[in-house]
From TrEMBL:
<dbReference type="InterPro" id="IPR002328">
    <property type="entry name" value="ADH_Zn_CS"/>
</dbReference>
<dbReference type="GO" id="GO:0008270">
    <property type="term" value="F:zinc ion binding"/>
</dbReference>
<dbReference type="InterPro" id="IPR013154">
    <property type="entry name" value="ADH-like_N"/>
</dbReference>
<keyword id="KW-0479">Metal-binding</keyword>
<dbReference type="InterPro" id="IPR013149">
    <property type="entry name" value="ADH-like_C"/>
</dbReference>
<feature type="domain" description="Enoyl reductase (ER)">
    <location>
        <begin position="153"/>
        <end position="492"/>
    </location>
</feature>
<dbReference type="Pfam" id="PF08240">
    <property type="entry name" value="ADH_N"/>
</dbReference>
<dbReference type="InterPro" id="IPR036291">
    <property type="entry name" value="NAD(P)-bd_dom_sf"/>
</dbReference>
<keyword id="KW-0560">Oxidoreductase</keyword>
<dbReference type="Pfam" id="PF00107">
    <property type="entry name" value="ADH_zinc_N"/>
</dbReference>
<dbReference type="InterPro" id="IPR020843">
    <property type="entry name" value="ER"/>
</dbReference>
<dbReference type="InterPro" id="IPR011032">
    <property type="entry name" value="GroES-like_sf"/>
</dbReference>
<keyword id="KW-0862">Zinc</keyword>
<comment type="similarity">
    <text>Belongs to the zinc-containing alcohol dehydrogenase family.</text>
</comment>
<dbReference type="GO" id="GO:0016491">
    <property type="term" value="F:oxidoreductase activity"/>
</dbReference>
<protein>
    <submittedName>
        <fullName>Alcohol dehydrogenase</fullName>
    </submittedName>
</protein>
Length: 494
């Protein structure tokens, strides 16, 4: 945002100024022939009532300006009822279709299509940059409540503008159920600096579609959907290979598929805008509750893909999972799909290892025991486990995995690490150890959904507490004190 403002200031100094003392309208700063000659990711401009005024296209050229004027009273058609009285707005899209975003607030304001004059004919876009000094007859935008990140250690359940469609492939979803992830706690600690103050948190949930973009045909208003924590455009090189976690589309940041509650507003809110809806949402089938569906947004795919699949778990294997929070438990719950002979749950928390039995753990070890490692080895043929899965995200637990894996075995790291770990290659190379890691793709969400629907995976087992959406701060409090409260997934129902 700051760089945008700098850019705008820079542009202004290069432009001719044209002042208009129109009682109704605007002060325009423009140059019909301005060519910035550089790339910009956001499109800038200003909107007067019913008017799209400016856009900077990705090419760097300034395009598509329609100057509002009393003399030529042909307002460009745009749903403007939600515009604030004075604002500078960012545009995105194309000359045929622009969307508008307030820079002083977050959340999109409106979407427009090719401007149309009153007589119905298309109005050609022109170049320029305009700023509104006064606008009349505007109405308030609709307001919703959401959990907003306010900087490290700070969060607020507050009123914010409701999201609106920005891109034709978007839908708006009214949240029915959401939850809190360990990653949200990382964000609140300030461990994820990409998250800006003002961001609505949350990347999991189930909701009901209330609005669809013009390019969405396979989803409709009223559909109940599971929101994947990773968004997929469906077209880029990575999406074509199922590596949605690195989707190259231009939402949030190209190359990062986890955008909800990170780079765009998330699901801990009454409504959320879902980009690339057709390739990122899954219809909730009959027989699967929204609460069960919420477990499929993130933790079940993470445990399955990054723990079990990357760890190459196969029939007869001895699998150890170090750290049995919700993500470790998801690995345990999906390990059973591949027929391991033993699944060993390892955690400092005696209560958590006991809970792990419900998910399919055959053995439990409390890792504060001095002989924890010997206990693990004793459960194997003496050579170590075939697959050691890390589900905490600290150097110590990664080392624990290296300590218990057998030669030619696999270490699958799922934890989000904040600092570097020890990797004693001088010892490991000769043991033919395979190490894997990754951000979940949710490319197996559809498969896991079928297994949840058939009760082959019991999603309810992950749910420890239930709250109402307006009590989300209480839900955070319980989730943050998991060791004390025995919380696993806290379900938050709207
Ligand atoms: N790779 C991905 O795509 C992805 C997706 C979601 C979450 N994650 C990450 O997975 C990790 C686990 O998530 P979670 O929600 O289950 O977290 P959590 O905090 O609920 O669970 C962590 C568990 O580890 C245990 N633990 C802590 N220190 C330990 C130690 N020294 N020895 C043994 N056990 C220890 C805790 O008692 C707890 O039960 C986090 O780092 C999270 O950020 C990764
Ligand atoms: Zn998560
Ligand atoms: Zn993509």
């Amino acid at each position: 945002m700051r760089s945008f403002k700098r850019e705008l200031a820079r542009i202004r100094t290069r432009t001719r100024t044209e002042l208009c003392d129109d009682r109704n309208a605007y002060r325009a700063v423009s140059d019909e022939h301005l060519d910035l000659g550089r790339r910009m990711r956001i499109y800038c401009g200003v909107v007067a009532r019913n008017m799209v005024i400016a856009e900077i296209l990705l090419t760097g050229k300034v395009h598509l300006v329609r100057k509002p004027s009393r003399e030529r009273s042909h307002p460009i058609v745009m749903p403007s009822e939600h515009l604030p009285p004075r604002d500078i707005l960012a545009f995105s899209g194309s000359p045929q279709r622009a969307s508008v975003k307030s820079l002083s607030d977050h959340g999109p304001l409106a979407t427009t299509t090719q401007p149309v004059a009153k007589n119905g004919s298309a109005v050609p876009w022109k170049k320029g940059i305009f700023e509104i000094s006064r606008m009349r007859h505007t109405q308030e935008r609709k307001i919703m409540k959401a959990l907003v990140y306010q900087g490290p250690g700070l969060k607020e359940w507050k009123e914010v503008p409701e999201p609106t469609i920005i891109t034709a492939t978007d839908v708006i979803v009214k949240i029915d159920t959401t939850t809190i992830c360990g990653t949200d706690l990382h964000i609140l600690k300030g461990d994820v600096p990409a998250v800006e103050v003002g961001r609505i948190l949350g990347h999991e949930g189930v909701g009901t579609i209330t609005e669809v973009g013009s390019a969405v045909s396979s989803l409709k208003v009223g559909d109940q959907v599971i929101i994947s924590c990773v968004s997929a455009c469906g077209h880029c090189d990575f999406c074509k290979k199922g590596v949605y976690s690195h989707c190259l589309a231009d939402e949030g940041a190209s190359g990062i598929g986890w955008i909800f509650g990170h780079l765009i507003d998330g699901t801990q809110a009454e409504f959320v805008r879902v980009p690339f809806a057709e390739t990122s949402l899954y219809l909730l089938p009959p027989g699967v509750t929204p609460q069960q569906g919420t477990v499929l947004s993130d933790i079940l795919p993470t445990g399955h893909e990054i723990g079990i699949q990357y760890g190459h778990v196969k029939a007869g294997d001895v699998v150890a999972v170090v750290g049995v929070g919700p993500v470790g438990l998801a690995a345990i719950a999906t390990a059973g799909l591949y027929g391991p002979s033993r699944v060993i749950a390892i955690d400092l928390d005696a209560n958590r290892v006991e809970q792990a039995r419900k998910f399919g753990a055959t053995d439990t070890i409390v890792s504060s025991d001095a002989d924890w490692k010997e206990q693990v080895i004793a459960l194997t043929d003496g050579l170590g486990v075939d697959v050691a899965i890390e589900a905490v995200g600290i150097p110590q637990t990664f080392t624990m995995c290296l300590d218990i894996v057998r030669p030619a075995g696999h270490v699958a790291n799922m934890g989000v690490h904040g600092k570097s770990v020890d990797l004693p290659l001088q010892d490991l190379w000769i043991s033919n150890i395979n190490i894997s890691m990754g951000l979940v793709n949710t490319n197996t969400l559809g498969i896991l959904l079928k297994l949840v629907a058939q009760k082959k995976i019991v999603a309810e087992n992950f749910i420890s507490h239930t709250f109402a959406l307006e009590d989300i701060l209480e839900a955070y409090d319980v989730f943050e004190r998991a060791a004390e409260t025995k919380a696993l997934k806290v379900i938050i129902n709207a």
